[in-house]
Amino acid sequence: MLERLYESVPLLEILVDSFPKILIPGLTVTIPLTAIAFSLAMVIAVAAAMIQFARVPAAAQLCRFYIWIFRGTPLLVQLFVVFFGLPKVGVRIEPFPAAVLVFSLNEGAYCAETVRAALEAVPAGQLEAGRCAGLSYLQTMRRIVLPQAMRTAFPPLSNSLIAMVKDTSLAANITVVEMFRATEQIDARVYQPLALYIEVGLVYLLFSTVLTWLQHIGERKLSAYEYREG
Amino acid sequence: MEVKNVRKSFGQTQVLKGVDLRVDRGDVVAILGPSGSGKTTLLRCLNFLERADEGTLRFDEEEFRLGHMSKRDVARLRKRTAFVFQSYNLFLNKTALQNVTEGLIVGRKMPRDRAEEIGRRALSKVGMADRMNHYPSQLSGGQQQRVAIARAMAVEPEIIYFDEPTSALDPELTGEVLAVMRQLAGEGMTMLVVTHELGFARTVSSQTVFMEHGVVVEAGASREVFEHPREERTRAFLQTDGRAEGKD
C-alpha cells in the first residue's frame, strides 16, 4: 500500500517541493557558515603568513606547528574532536559555532601557505623601496607588498573558497542542518536518493558557478595595474 | 656625510674591507669600479638595506656606528635620504603620482592635496607630467626611472643615493635619465652615484671615487682623477670602456 502511494506521487513534484527545502538551508546555513568561516580563515591566513614572512621568532614556529596539525589531519576528524570530543573535558560548543571554528582553523592553515607563497613572490625591491621612501615595515607591507601578494593569491584563494562551500556538507555529521543534511532528512521521508542527491549537487554547482563568476570580476578589478598587450 | 672604515662580509667573502668616503653638501660624487668591487654593497650599507659589520657614519653633526644602529635612528636617517635603484622598484600597484606621494602621505603624514601638488611638480620636472596616472607596467624603463627620481626628489632629501640608475636601460633611454640627473646636479642636490657612465662621472660629478676589491683605490676631484689618475689601476680602468667591464 505504502509503496504504491509513494510511487503515485510524481517524481517531478517531489523535486519541485523539495527545492526550496534544500535551497533555504543553503542560503541560511551553508552560505553564512562559509562566509563567516572563510572571513576568519583569511584573517588567520594573512596573520600567519606575515608572521612567517617577517620571521618573527617563536611566533613563526608556532604558525608552522598550527599549519602542520590542521593540514595533517582530516577535516572530519577535527569536527568530531571539537563537537563530540571537547564536551568530555567540559567544553561544549553548539553545532554551528563548532563548525565555524573548525572550518576557519582548517581553511586558515591552507590559505596561510597560499598567502605566504604570494608574499614571497613579490619582488624584494618593493619592500626595500618602501623602506627607502620613509615608510615603516608595517606600512610597506600593508600598502605595497600585501596588495600585490593578494593579487597573486586571489585565484588560489578563490579555489579554496569554492572547495569550502562543498566541504561544509561535512558539518552535517555534527548535526548542523545545512543543505546536505536537509536533503538527507527529505530523503528519509520520500526515499528518492538518486533524484534528491543530484538535486542538492546541482544547488552546490549553482553556488560554485556564482563564485566562479565573482572570481572573474574580482580578478579583473584587481588587475587594474597590470598592463596587458592586445 | 662621511663614513669611515666600512666593512661587510657575506659569509666568508669580505666585500668591503674598510672603505672611507666623504660627501659634502652640494657635492655630486661618482663611484666607479669593476664588477664585484663592492660599490653597490657600499651604497646599500649607507641606507641600511644591508647591515655593515663595522664602520662609523657621520651625518651632519651626528655620529652612528653602522653595525649597531637602532631601528629609530635608521627610520630617522632614511627620512632625510632617498634611494634610486637600478631596477627602479616603483610600487607596481600605484600610479606614477601615487608612487611619488606615498612616502609623503604615509611616511611623513603630509595632507593629501599638498603631497599631490609636490608630486605633480616633481613629475613635471622629470618630464612625466602627462603620465601621472599611468601604472609602472605602462611606462618604459626610462620613464619608470624618471618617476623613481621624482619620487626621490619629492621628499626633499639631504642626499640622494643612485645605484647604477642607467644600467638596465638602452643608450637612448639612458640619455633621458642622465639629463634629469644632470639637471638635478645643476640645482645643487647632493648626490652619491654608483655608475658605469664614465661620461657622467667626468662631466657632471665634482668628485670621483674609484673602487676595486672592496677598497677605495683612488678618490679626488673628477677632473684630477680623469686627467691625471695617480694609480695605475685607475688609468687602466678609465682607458677600457667602463661599461664593458663593470656590470654587477
Topology, pairings included?
The complex is a heterodimer of chains A (230) and B (248).
Chain A: H1 2-8, H2 11-53, H3 59-72, H4 75-85, H5 95-121, H6 124-132, H7 137-167, H8 179-190, H9 193-222
Chain B: E1 2-10, E2 13-22, E3 28-32, H1 39-46, E4 54-59, E5 62-65, H2 71-78, E6 81-84, H3 96-107, H4 112-125, H5 141-154, E7 159-163, H6 171-186, E8 191-194, H7 198-203, E9 207-212, E10 215-221, H8 222-227, H9 232-239, H10 242-245
Parallel strand pairs in B: 3-8, 3-9, 6-7, 7-8
Antiparallel strand pairs in B: 1-2, 1-4, 4-5, 9-10
Radius of gyration of chain A: 22 Å
Question: What is the number of E strands of chain B?
Answer: 10
The percent range for helix content of chain A is over 70%
- Weakly predicted, low-confidence segments of chain A: none
Q: Whole-Å distance between the termini of chain B?
A: 25 Å
Order of helices and strands of chain B: EEEHEEHEHHHEHEHEEHHH
Query: How is the quaternary structure best described?
Result: heterodimer
Largest interface by Cβ-Cβ < 8 Å = A-B, 22 and 28 residues
Summed over residues and divided by their number, the pLDDT of chain A gives a mean of 93
Strand content of chain A: under 5%
Number of helices of chain A: 9
CA distance, first residue to last residue of chain A: 69 Å
How much helix is in the residues of chain B?
25-40%
N-to-C SSE string of chain A, H for helix and E for strand: HHHHHHHHH
* Overall residue-averaged pLDDT value of chain B: 92
Short description:
Chain A has 230 residues and is mainly α. Helices cover 80% and strands 0% of the residues of chain A.
Describe this structure as you would to a colleague:
The complex is a heterodimer of chains A (230) and B (248). Chain A is an all-alpha fold and 230 residues long. Chain A has 9 helices and no strands. Chain A is flat, with a radius of gyration of 22 Å. Chain A starts with a helix and ends in an 8-residue tail after the last helix. Chain B starts with a strand and ends with a helix. In chain B, the strands form 2 sheets. In chain B, strands 6-7-8-3-9-10 form a 6-stranded mixed sheet, sandwiched between helices. Chain A binds chain B through residues 123, 125-126, 128-136, 139, 143-144, 147-148, 151, 224-227, and chain B through 47, 49, 75, 78-79, 81-83, 85, 87, 89-95, 102-103, 106-108, 135-138, 151, 155.
